Amino acid sequence: MSCIGKKYTWAITRLTLLGVADVIGVTDQDTWEYGQELRAIIAEKKLHHVVFVHPQTLLGMVPASEMTREKYMETADECRSMLEAQYGSTIKEIEALITADRDTNSTYCGMVKFLETEISAALVGKSYKERKRLQKDTAKKMMQRSEAFTMAIRSLRPMDVRLSMHPSSGAAKLSISLIPCPKGFFQRSPWHSCVAIDAQGGYHCVHSEDVKMTHDLVYKNGRPYFYMVKESVAEEAPAEGSFQAPLHVEVAKEASFMAPMSPKATVK
Fold first, then answer.
1. pLDDT tens per residue, the chain (268 residues)?
2. Cα torsion angle, 123, 126, 128, 129, sign
3. pTM to 2 decimals?
4. What is the separation, in whole angstroms, between the first and last Cα of the chain?
5. What is the residue extent of each domain of the chain?
6. What residues pair up with 163 in beta bridges, in sequence order?
């Protein structure tokens, strides 16, 4: 985001929490706390060009200046209902979109995959067919909410350029990699993975289970922050608090963080 600010000094990046957490059982309380942590990072990094917009503010329900934890909790359900009533699609329409649109299909397939672990508790004891059905139904509900947000943003912020961390053809949004990875690979969702650094300094978004034996966990401010490959921990690991987030302008110069075009994707 800082790269955008350096090129376009007048630009503002607006972040809105999409609002699908409840579909997979995340509470509104946890969603609020997550947003507060993001705001703390923005303040720490002095990213003055980044502005948060609550869905309730986007829809005109609650002015930004009046938003509090209590107000957020009180209006969360109403906000979701209003969003789906005014901008939502039916499940049949979502299924048709998944079939017809490559970007939507790519996002949907990614959601089905990560739901294997995201809702693992709900999958226990079910047959393979039942597990796949639950994953697909949940993914469609998430896509339904996502498309409602997309339509709301298009309607209420028509002059904004939409940025996305998911790969796409570039037809409806600009896809950027939040964490530039070696060889142009696109990162996993940051909230579904952690960062592991290899011996060459390359960043990888991985599941912690995949690197626990080969990497050491590095802490910042007493919290787990990233994994460093064991052979280089003693000599190369940054001191606590000195590690810089991967997405910054110097990294951007070295590695393209625009989404690679899918071989099957077509520009519409």
1. 566 667 777 777 888 876 788 898 889 999 999 899 989 989 999 988 888 899 999 999 999 999 999 999 999 999 999 999 999 999 999 999 999 988 888 889 888 988 888 888 888 898 999 999 999 999 999 999 988 988 998 999 998 888 887 777 777 788 887 787 776 666 777 777 889 998 888 888 888 889 999 999 999 889 899 999 987 554 555 554 444 444 332 333 333 333 333 333 322 2
2. negative
3. 0.74
4. 26
5. 13-175, 180-233
6. 174
What size, in residues, is the chain? 268
Rg, C-alpha atoms of the chain = 20
Q: Is 50 helix (H, G, I), strand (E, B) or coil?
A: strand
Which residues, in sequence order, are CB contacts of 177 under 8 Å at separation 6+?
165, 186, 187, 257, 258, 259
Cα–Cα distance measured from residue 231 to residue 200, given in angstroms and rounded to the nearest whole number: 11
